[in-house]
Amino acid sequence: MQYKNLFRKLERTLSKIEGSSDQLATTAEILRRLVDDFRDDLGLVGGRIYARQDDAYVLEREYPEGRARLGFRIPSAYPVIQELAVQGFVYRRVDDPDVDREIEGALGVEVFAAIMVGDDNDQIIAFSLADDADASHVVHTLNTVRHAINLKLRHEFLQDRVLEAREIQLSLLPPNHKVFGDFDIYAQTRPAEEVGGDLFDYLPISKRALGLVVADASGHGLPAALQARDAIIGLRMGVAESLRITATLDKLNKVIHRSALASKFISLFYGELETNGTFVFCNAGHPPALVWDGAFMVELNRGGMVLGPNPEAAYERHYTSLSPGTVFLAYTDGITEAEDAHGESFGVERLRRIVRSRPWPDAKGLVESVFDAVHAFTGREQPEDDQTVLAVVRARSVAP
Known about the structure:
The chain has helices spanning 3-15, 23-37, 39-42, 79-87, 101-107, 135-172, 222-238, 245-257, 333-336, 347-356, 363-378; strands at 44-53, 56-63, 73-75, 89-93, 111-117, 123-129, 177-180, 183-190, 198-206, 209-217, 266-274, 278-284, 289-292, 297-300, 303-304, 318-321, 327-331, 387-394. With 400 residues, the chain is an alpha+beta fold.
């Protein structure tokens, strides 16, 4: 088989292997696939996986099973292991001068090739070979296999860390739906990657006041997600009925400014909704939230600059009122800046038209209509930037 075709086959084989949080399980599946798929190409007849434990490598897996005793230990001082640690690869016959016949005899091996894998060289994959295997062919190919396996293991490790971060981020989000007095509240976020820099939150302040937050850390992905997480945690720790909104944002701004993360700018809309409809808010460089009372549309754009760039930035609170039948909508710029195939942005005016389009009996219907409209406009299944929408609908007054 030509090398190019062989490498394509190797790539296909590794791509079929599903990742596991257990690196040994992933390596065992790689061993099984290689023996099955490359038996004829390379003369592979079986294999074993050793894991480093203290001053030895211990046999953990064998394929096919039954030839050797699991738990068999090979000292790290064994010359073959020493060469393997330096070169990453060895090819040996049992009659080679540096081969210990007692060790290899216990494993039932006559001809073998081994590769060392893992960032810390913590695993060895040893292949038993047919007597007529082409040594130069095996050496060349399995060296490439070693690099491919290391890339696969690193990818799985990083993917696991990202998924763990996603679980942490999702655990910080409140349930999408909330009822507060006669206010129906619903929010949803859709990250551009596994994790994103957008977050929303509902912060209980007292029986008569609820904090509403929409935040957007610059960029997206893991750094932005970590920064947004810190902002939400900071708000949760800082808000209280007796503490002014501006004092909380002043402190949070200084914390974000000192952050070592590359993503250290956060736009944030924070408001405190009272049961009587009074809404105290501060917009820290965030896209203006919309308030629609059925006759007039108001944009809530006052407050201060984005959090982070200037530790001495000043923030002001402002007031509005959500009367019966009023709709409130907060969002991130991933909504309004979403582009269609021609590079046109969705824009604020389309968002305003959705809010005005009909009476909204509940907040969920409004949020889903916004996402549906953006999806139809862009034609993309996955957004290019994180997208978040939070809506509040106050019930209309019921005549006595």
